[in-house]
C-alpha cells in the first residue's frame, strides 16, 4: 500500500484524540434496533461508509472518522447496535448475540442510500461480515478484526460468565490494550462512554461460535492490522489470514494500537481507508 492519502482539509490535527464531543452534536436516526449517527449524507454516486463499533463501544468512537470522511466528501455514518452507545440496555440485552448485532448492521445498511462500504472494528468485524452476507455491499473494511469462528487456526479465548452483562474494561486496560499509551494518561473520556457488554456477544467471539463461511463476499475489502495489538487476542498472522480468506488487501499500521480510530495519530488509519476507497471507487 502506498503512503496514506492526504488528510482532508478543515480538520484540526492538534485536537485531543479522546474528545468525542462531535458525536453528541451529529444528527441521529433509528435503524431497526440500532441508531445511526450521520456524519454526512451522499453527495455523489461513490459509496458511503458505515462504521460498526466493537465490544463495549458505540458510534461515538468514530467521531474523528466521521469528521474526516465528511471533509473528504464521502457519505458516512456510524452505528449504535442494540444496547450500545446512546441506546438503553433492556432485560434481554444479556442474551443478545453477534447474530443479533449482524441483523442490526443489515437494518442500518437498508436505511442508507445505495450500497455502502461496511467498516467493522474488533468484535464489530463479525456482525459487519454477517451483514455483508445478508445484504449487497460496495466493500468491506476490517480494523483489528476478531476472527470468524470457522477461520482455520483462529485463537479461542476463555469465556466469561454468562449470567449478566460484562462490565466495561477499566482505565488500566484502556491504556494498555486499547491505546498502548502511558500508564498515567487520563482516559476518563473513554471510560465514561464505554458500556457493559452482552456476555453472549463476548462468548460468541471468545468461543469461536460465529461462522462466516469461506465463500467470496462479492465485494473488495481491506484489513488493517494494528501493529501494537496484543498477541493474546491477535496472534501474528491471524489478521493476514482473515484478509486472505476473503481476498482482501492487508496492511499493518506499525504504530497503531487496537483502537486505531481514536488513538494518537488516528489519521494514519483513516488515511489508509481513504486511499483504499479512492483506489476502488475514484
TrEMBL record:
One of its GO terms (molecular function) is hydrolase activity. InterPro entries: AB_hydrolase_1 (IPR000073), AB_hydrolase_fold (IPR029058), Carboxylesterase_BioH (IPR050228). This is Alpha/beta fold hydrolase. Residues 49-263 form the AB hydrolase-1 domain. It comes from the Bacteria. Keywords: Hydrolase. Pfam families: Abhydrolase_6.
Amino acid at each position: 500500500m502506498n503512503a496514506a492519502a492526504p488528510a482532508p482539509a478543515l480538520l484540526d490535527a492538534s485536537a485531543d484524540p479522546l474528545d468525542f464531543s462531535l458525536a453528541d452534536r451529529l444528527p441521529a436516526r433509528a435503524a431497526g434496533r440500532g441508531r445511526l449517527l450521520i456524519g454526512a449524507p451522499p453527495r455523489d454516486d461513490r459509496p458511503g461508509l458505515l462504521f460498526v463499533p466493537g465490544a463495549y463501544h458505540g458510534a461515538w468512537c468514530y467521531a474523528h472518522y466521521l469528521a474526516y470522511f465528511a471533509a473528504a466528501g464521502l457519505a458516512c455514518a456510524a452505528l449504535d447496535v442494540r444496547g450500545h452507545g446512546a441506546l438503553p440496555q433492556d432485560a434481554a440485552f444479556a442474551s443478545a448475540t453477534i447474530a443479533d448485532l449482524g441483523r442490526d448492521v443489515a437494518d442500518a445498511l437498508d436505511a442508507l442510500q445505495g450500497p455502502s462500504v461496511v467498516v467493522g472494528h474488533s468484535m464489530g468485524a463479525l456482525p459487519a461480515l454477517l451483514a455483508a452476507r445478508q445484504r449487497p455491499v460496495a466493500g468491506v473494511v476490517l480494523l483489528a478484526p476478531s476472527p470468524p469462528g470457522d477461520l482455520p487456526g483462529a485463537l479461542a479465548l476463555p469465556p466469561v460468565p454468562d449470567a449478566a452483562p460484562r462490565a466495561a474494561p477499566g482505565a488500566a486496560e484502556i491504556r494498555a490494550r486499547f491505546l498502548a499509551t502511558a500508564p498515567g494518561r487520563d482516559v476518563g473520556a473513554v471510560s465514561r462512554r464505554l458500556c457493559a457488554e452482552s456476555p453472549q456477544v463476548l462468548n460468541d467471539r471468545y468461543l469461536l461460535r460465529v461462522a462466516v463461511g469461506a465463500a467470496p463476499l462479492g465485494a473488495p475489502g481491506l484489513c488493517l492490522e494494528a501493529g501494537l495489538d496484543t498477541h493474546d487476542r491477535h496472534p501474528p498472522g491471524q489478521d493476514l489470514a482473515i484478509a486472505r480468506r476473503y481476498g482482501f488487501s492487508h496492511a499493518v499500521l506499525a504504530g497503531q494500537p487496537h483502537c486505531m480510530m481514536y488513538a494518537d495519530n488516528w489519521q494514519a488509519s483513516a488515511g489508509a481507508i481513504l486511499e483504499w476507497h479512492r483506489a476502488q471507487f475514484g
